[in-house]
Amino acid sequence: MAEEKTKIEKKKTAIVNGKDLPVGLKHAIALCNFIRGKDIDTVIPMLEEVTRLKRAIPMRGEIPHRHGMMSGRYPVKGSKEFIILLKSLKSNAIVNELELEKYIIACSSNLASRPYKRFGQGRVKRCHVTIQLIESTKKKKTKKEIKK
User: Fold this and answer.
1) In angstroms, rounded to a whole number, what is the distance separating the alpha carbons of residues 72 and 102?
2) Tens-of-pLDDT digits for all 148 residues of the chain?
3) Phi, psi of 34 (to 5 degrees)
């Protein structure tokens, strides 16, 4: 029998799933909105600034104003979890041999089941987060489009 060589298809995206993260859904949504559409190499240092309380994340609701934005907070615990996920995503992209400059982040978060604390005295916050790298579809504008 002639042996056929099977070609392994390269993946076009890299994806990472965070299940049951100990982060509130409101903070996870704000962090997803903050990192969505950005480059992975610029996002990780920005989130490290959040953990050092140097940069605030914009949030909705009745939250105090921060320097340079209407309202925001410093979700330190959530940003640490997101940094771990983003580093894992970056290593997945390197294994799949993706060029990181051509890809942007797409992110979404969902509510997870909330287990009870010890002796049933309350419930803990949990959420699921999915982060993936998708191809950037930025076009260079021609001179005719700029004039219009």
Assistant:
1) 30
2) 556 677 777 788 899 999 999 999 999 999 999 999 999 999 999 999 999 999 999 999 889 998 888 999 999 999 999 999 999 999 999 999 999 999 999 999 999 999 999 999 999 999 999 999 999 887 666 666 666 6
3) -70, -40
- Rounded to whole angstroms, the maximal C-alpha distance in the chain is 73
DSSP reduced 3-state for 105: strand
> How many other β-carbons are positioned within 10 Å of the β-carbon of residue 147?
7
CATH number, span 14-147: 3.90.470.10
By three-state DSSP, how is residue 5 classified? coil
Find all residues with CB under 8 Å of 148, minimum gap 6, and list them.
none
Domain ranges for the chain: 14-147
DSSP 3-state assignment of 23? coil
d(C-alpha 73, C-alpha 70), whole Å: 11
Coil vs helix vs strand at 109: strand
**Whole-prediction pTM value?**
0.85
